[in-house]
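Worked example 2:
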Amino acid sequence: MTLKHEYSGKGYDCNTVGERGYKKEFLTSLYYDMLRIRRIEEGIERRYCEDEMKSPIHLVIGQEATSVGACAPLRQQDLVYCGHRTQGHYLAKGGSLEKMMSELYCRLNGCAGSRGGSMHLFDKSVGMAGSSAIVAGAIPIAAGAALSFQVLQQDRVCLVFLGDAATEEGACWEAVNFSVLRKLPVIFFCENNFFSVCSPLEVRQPPQVKIFEKAKGFGLPAYQVDGTNVLDVFEVTKEAVDRVRAGEGPTFIEALVYRWRGHGGAGDDSASGYRDPLEVRHWEQYCPIKTYYEFLTKMNLYDEAAQKKDEHKIQEEISRAFDHAIASANPEEADLFTHVYCL
């Protein structure tokens, strides 16, 4: 089978990972966090047809390892910015699930007060600083936040998630260039899932150009990593975080991933013809959650009983979050102009 976008990772090497001295609690927490994001998104997808969630959704199903692996080395006071596909990043950084669900249902107590929907999630209490539906819109904002850390001499890191399409915007490379010049404490994390809506990478960028290689031309360390391997993602991000905290400036990371669902909404839109449905099935074989579960069980760190217990805990949390959102108050007309500074 010849596909345009094939998995190129190597999976988990139990011997190599075993030598790194990770604690069991840390390794199993990564699995729990990925499973939680998957089940939350599946729950949203199942109920989206009820037409009660008055917000567009952009699911990260298939991309959980990048959200969890990249956020794991960060501290609570470190900031995360991202684009329109926000839910995985928000949850991995510790954002409130109840507030997120209320936002999807456009309730007054949503994390953005019903004003933002899924493309503008934030939770200041955990360092989920914000997102932008404008392609590459969050990147210069993240660089500005990193500049403020430097000026105020704060020991904080800023990580900004971006897609492959964001690297086709001038704002991306202007922010990278400025950050390199000023040695800012920022990490540019590109989730390359090969598509901008329905346009594949090969019709948008020259085939011989690799995104991380392009970033190297700006004079900063840049790496390409298997985006389905949560430990590989964690390690390359932790190295970047350590470099930033040492005052050595920014890093660019390109993670090769694949979204199993359509660009927006529920379900797989491959039947529209912009990608081969067999390509989706191909990537599903390398599910970041399934492959990591197999690794953990092979290492005798996790088992079916523990997995069932975690599934039950997650499903109970999801059920409470849906009930909370549906029972919450709708926006009030009197609140319409709150936070509006120009009429």
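Residues 221 and 235 are 14 Å apart (CA to CA). The mean pLDDT is 95.
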